[in-house]
Amino acid sequence: MISTDLALLLRSAGLRWHPASGDRFAVLQAALAGEVFTISEMTIEARDYPTGTILGFNGTTEWALDSVAQEDALWLPREDQLRELLGRAFRSLARSTDGTSYQVLAELPGRPEQVFTAETADDAYAHALLALVTAAVDPVR
User: Fold this and answer.
1) Phi, psi torsion values for 34, nearest 5 degrees
2) CA 74, 129, 93, 18 torsion: positive or negative?
C-alpha cells in the first residue's frame, strides 16, 4: 500500500478519486492517523449528494463514526488501480536482481522512457503515475 505522503502528492497533483467498493482510504484526522478503511457495500459505502460525496459507515459503532466527507478522506490506490491509471504510459514492472526494489518503466507523453524505482511495486507505480499526472498538468517540464 502506498504511503499517506505519496497519496497526498498524487491528490495535490490532480489525481481524482471516484469512490468504489474495494477502495482503501485514510481519514485525515489526527485521531484516526494510521487507520486504513475499505469501502464495502456492507459497511462503508460512498453516497453521492448534490453537496458532495459522503462515505457512510454502516454498523461501525465501535468507531462512533457515522460518515466522513470525501474531501476529508485520502484515497490509497491499490497496485492494480495505479497500473490502470498509468494506461498506455505503462511499459513494464520488474524486480531488482537483489530483490530489494521494484522498477516501473513508463513512457510519458513527449519524453523518453523513464524508470521509477521504489521498495514496493505499489510505490513504483505511484511515482510513475505522479510523474504522468504532473506532466499532464505542466507539459513543458
Assistant:
1) 85, -10
2) positive
In the chain (141 residues long), the average pLDDT of successive 10-residue segments reads 94 94 91 87 81 79 68 94 97 96 95 95 97 77 40
**Cα-to-chain-centroid distance, residue 104:** 16
Characterize 60-71 residue by residue with b for buried, 16 or more Cβ atoms within 10 angstroms of its Cβ, and e for exposed: eeeeebeebebe
Tell me the pTM.
0.80
What span, in angstroms and rounded, lies between the C-alpha atoms of 13 and 89? 17
User: Any bridge partners for residue 118, and if so which?
Assistant: 102
Give 11's DSSP letter.
H
| Set of cell numbers at residue 36 | 486504513
Are 78 and 126 a contacting pair, CB within 8 Å?
A: no
Directed axis angle between helix 79-86 and helix 121-137, to 10°?
Answer: 30
**DSSP 8-state class, residue 40:** B
